[in-house]
Request: fold
Amino acid sequence: MIITSPQNPKIKQAINLNERRHREREGLMLVEGFEELSLALESGVRPQTLFYCPELFSKNTGELLERTRATGAEIIEVTLPVFEKIAYRENPDGWLALVPTQSIRRHLSDLALGENPLLVVAEAVEKPGNLGAILRSADAAGVNALILCDPTTDVCNPNVVRSSRGTLFSLPVVEAQKEEALRWLREHRITLIAATPQADLIYTQADLRGPVAIVVGTEKEGLSQTWLEQADITVRIPMRGRVNSLNVATATTLLLYEAVRQRNS
Reply:
């Protein structure tokens, strides 16, 4: 099947999925890019539909096409003008899939933590790019799960997928209210490490070798009082310039790799 018209109902459906209300109504999200789709498939995701445009392929991609076909997905070739209509990235590479949002929907009870878990709790992250970057760093650092508390951005936003490079599918992500998350973390005896510029302890001085959850908030508001009061340890990242906070994804990366350093030493 080859679609040549951007007015095709399937193309209109894909375009609509850029909006949250359509994603929630359809139960579908967009995954664009060869690497992102590859990682999603490796993580067990079964796409509903794949749109592809051979004119944009930059490498031998027959294997990925067959792997996607083997999941039972509907495979649809589209012309270049049509793909440019549905693509949300700059310089698209010819791959875009519609994936059920239930592929990433998990509950706290689903998480398998192992003996010495390392978790991230992100409260009220606003920007899809920041959330995606946190996911990418968390995956690289071997984090067991990311818990999103009171999120203000949709984890299924295409820009979360893009900026995470597909790690949204390889790393368990749970959305929970902070009271529920706190109760679960206490039940599992996880030490809470809250990052705040007001802390006295520098983050490299905290013991991050045991079961810990690194808790971060937004650059503008920081963490809510609930997390600051419930934290076992509060830490700060030294700031030598005139600003008093880092981008939340950058701060999370620093804290995670300090935990990795301590655990490997």
The chain has two domains: 2-103, 108-264. The domain at 2-103 is CATH 3.30.1330.30 (60s Ribosomal Protein L30; Chain: A;). The mean pLDDT is 94. The CA atoms of residues 220 and 245 lie 9 Å apart.
